[in-house]
Amino acid sequence: MPSTIAHQTELSANVVLLCRFLRKKGYKLSTLEESDALRAISFLPIHSEEYFKEALRSVLTKSQFQRTKFDEYYQEFKDQLKKASDSKVKELPEEKKQPEKKTKAAQFDALKDWLNLTPSDEQKEVAAFSDLEVLTKKNFLDLSEDEMRLMMRVLRKLARKMAHQKSRLRKKSKRYQHLDLKQTMRTNMRKGGEIQQLQFSERKDRKLKLVLLCDVSRSMELYSRFFIHLIYAFQNAYDNIETLVFSTALHRVSEILDTNEVEKAFKTISERVPHWSGGTTIGSCLQDFTHNYGHSMLDKKTIVLMLSDGWDTGEPEVMRTAMKTIYKKSKKVIWLNPLAGSPDFAPEALGMKTALPYIDVLASAHNLESLKQALQQLRGKRKLPNTWSR
Amino acid sequence: MKSEELSQIKKMLQEQGYIDDGAIAMSIFLAMKLEKPLLVEGPAGVGKTEIAKVVAKALKTELIRLQCYEGLDSTHALYEWNYQHQLLYLKMQEGKGEAIKDLEETIFSDKFLLKRPVLNAITHADKTVLLIDEIDRADEEFESFLLEVLSDWQVTIPEIGTIKATNKPQIILTGNRTRELSEALRRRCLYLWIDYPTFEKELAIVKSKVPEIDQKLGVQICSFMKELRELKLEKTPGISETIDWARALASMHLEHLEEQIVEETLGVVLKDWQDMRHTQDSLSELLERTRVTSRIS
User: Fold this and answer.
1) ipTM
2) Which residue of B193, B195, B231 is the best one to mutate when testing the A interface, meaning the one whose CB has the most A CBs within 10 A?
3) Is A278 left (phi over 0), alpha (psi -120 to 50) or beta?
4) Chain A residue with minimal CA distance to B236?
5) A233: nearest Cα among A206, A218, A214
6) pLDDT tens profile A22-33
7) Are B190 and A268 a contacting pair at CB < 8 A?
């Protein structure tokens, strides 16, 4: 590595600058990548910029998202570099960017600095934790962009925790961790009692299957951005999960969530799902679900999680039959209704009322605390008669 | 001279019938030059695994393949002690009064070591191509097993010590993004994303893989596929589907696409009943658009 950086030319200086620029854009680049980039360009013909760019892209990007963004950033960097050298100011280009880069986060920090008389980094850390405290009680509607990001991190952790439940049963394992004496004796009996083969065991995974049905109609619009984040977190934590969204028609989106970055997934889904027109027809969507997916997705190990406000413009009878089928075929039905958070809420919307007898848990999920409580319900068996909690 | 090597790789790819768009050749070139593993991601059926096969063929070396699956662990990927043989050996030596230290040395030697693909690749007499296919299917802990090999070209076996690579193999990892790969793995590799091909690239691929195909039919197939991918299907068909379809249609000696034939052979391209239904509904519109675009090109 040292030999490559030994003689710093203008080109290599610019490559290093580019790396620093990309780092600001969220690329995780270490000195390893920097030195790789410098080595890579030493293999190339000098005159071709196309090769140069291609090589840098090859070395500096580490995911599809970064790869698609690279061209744009590269151009931006070049423009800045040009500007900097034109004005004969030998400043680093990113220093010019500083004033406009003051995003909400920075402003927020500045405000806090002023309030707290500039806390040290350590204090900031603590502040971040107490932010979390506030967050748990804050309505999802009032979240700022930064709080949203913090929230996502919490959600992902939560989803992962819920996903990895181990059963008490043990099964044969290939991992050499827990020796199963009983099985070891048994297998080696037939070899005359000589221990030739060791048997191992591990705890069985509790196969929790989850079906998410998410309402993305206009009436849910305010919440659906958040809910897409939520189901994204879930989709990536669970193996056995199917996600469907509905407004006037039902769409299976598991695949999209599985294979895309969250922003892109969000975009693709909103493209695929036609916009709200006239109202939500939860009933017919659920009917569609029971007819086309019910046989493959529902069984007694499956928990159905519905996210909707229950405003239905269809026939209540259709909804009733569909809900009944879902209830009978599943392990548990959990309905998250963001409206249920307000103190004077009663399940009065017609759709909600119809569905109520076939719901195990109706919870609000309008802030983190209530969501956490609702997700606790993923464990355990169905309790009769059904409960409804705030 | 330096650009010669790059164009040489391009030529090699071409000779093997692999059509490249610049980015692929550059990535392979740099992976070989920088001696780094190459991580290839992209949707299903765009020729990720094919890269490794082509590189192996072009370098005229052996391709060692490790297909990943859930539950794959180090004993199947790196190495394993031949436990039964060790026991038998001990039994045989029982009455001979050999010192325990010697015995230990013998049973933990090369003789009783079962080499799995990764160890095999790095101890091979020649430079090989090691394909670790669908790495995202393996568990996360398996990724960590690989890290030592990927960055330092060595495998550490507690009983023997560290085995260094005699010849650094060219490692190619592929992934479908069924799971996000760890940051640690990513930063040890060069990254290549292969997307669905452009119309021109796809046509070139079809022509090279199915040389007997009618020119006009080839154009129509490719523009139909392009339109089909716009439909946002559950399982978007990849290049391999295009090639299968082209082969099927070419074997029927067709000269252009007809609605009935398309409908009957749609199963070659689409593998999901909902997609099938969706496509059949909009088939005539699709074909109409195909006709327009193929006339332009």
Assistant:
1) 0.76
2) B193
3) left
4) A255
5) A214
6) 888 888 888 888
7) no
